[in-house]
Amino acid sequence: MKDFFLDLYRDLIRIIHARLDNSKLEGTENLIEFIHSRAAYVAQTSLYGYLKTRMGRQYVDIFKDEFFAPSLNKAKWELYFACLSDLTVYAISNIVTKSNLTDEEISNKAKFIFDACVARTLDDNCPPVIMTQAKNSFMNRSQITIWANAAIGENAFSLSPETLANSSPVTEEFQELDREIVLNSVRFRWNNIREEFQKRYNREKILDSW
């Protein structure tokens, strides 16, 4: 349990540091940093925010429950990978708009970005099976994505709201009761991330770096 809190603290420090960075996104390296840090931010604030609201005064106690910790860790990683998948699709789809890249080239670049984010973020608490499933799922998604459509509005952000609604470590009764609220809470968090990305990314320079 001590390791869990230490990992949580490190994650939060890294996310806060990244959120203070307003530099332009002009290459692959800072694009990867943006995607993985914002995906982690949305995943953690959505999951822990929901649990705090639902559990009330018991919120602190659940982190001390040795039987609850594995479920929480599993939910954290599933939601992170869902957020990472959504944001990667959104970012790539915006960047490749009006480019001459083929669908295969776009899919390969999206997979490269996704895998780079995974490599940067993983620690020993991530169940290997979840990591493998996430990579395979994104590879399949990248191959069927209509990239021009994914850049429009919330089209790319289909996986993360459903993942939080379905994977939160609460009873099935609460999952059903809170479903609409949970879906909307994740969608709302993406609004600021999309606005930030639009202000910071430089399509031409990122494409040149590829």
Key traits:
210 residues; mainly alpha; 11 helices
Shape: globular
What letter string, H or E per element, gives the SSE order?
HHHHHHHHHHH
**Overall SS class:** mainly alpha
What composes the largest sheet?
none
Total number of helices: 11
Total strands? 0
Question: Mean of residue pLDDT?
Answer: 84
Oligomer: single chain
- Radius of gyration of CA atoms, rounded to a whole number: 17 Å
Distance, first to last CA = 42 Å
Structure description:
By secondary structure, the chain is mainly α. The chain is built from eleven helices and no strands. The chain has helices spanning 2-19, 28-55, 59-62, 69-96, 103-121, 128-144, 147-150, 159-167, 172-177, 179-200, 203-209. The longest helix has 28 residues, at 28-55. The protein is globular.
Summed up, what is this model?
With 210 residues, this protein is mainly alpha-helical.
